[in-house]
Predict the structure.
Amino acid sequence: MTAASVLSHLMKRIPVLPVLAGVALLSVACAKEPTEALNAAKSALAAAKTAEAADYAPAALAAAETAAAALEAEIKAQSEKFGLTRSYTKAAELATAAKSAAEKAAAEAVTGKELLIGNYEADGAEKIDRLSLRPYEARVYRLL
């Protein structure tokens, strides 16, 4: 038997189309992490912490941190799966939710801080950051 006859015999035995489809599936099906959305969620959470959300919007920050933890858990769960069964669709949705929750926490922190500072009379020469204020005072003084 010559090499050409062996190759011809194999081509008749092995269906070429399913093999090519399998190779194509293997090269395309491996899902990739939504790194852009993941980085956006992480930076939004860092911005919320920088805006002092822990002091002025603790509930919103806790919600953002919970959403970020769910995102991390989903990323970890998908990375532990076999390559062909990975799907980062849910992770992308969780990243969007974590980002919006963190942005909400940052906005609430800014609002809470402005509300708190607005309850104290300070002239222009006084530095606001020198006031030692507690977040609950905003609610107490606002009611009066």
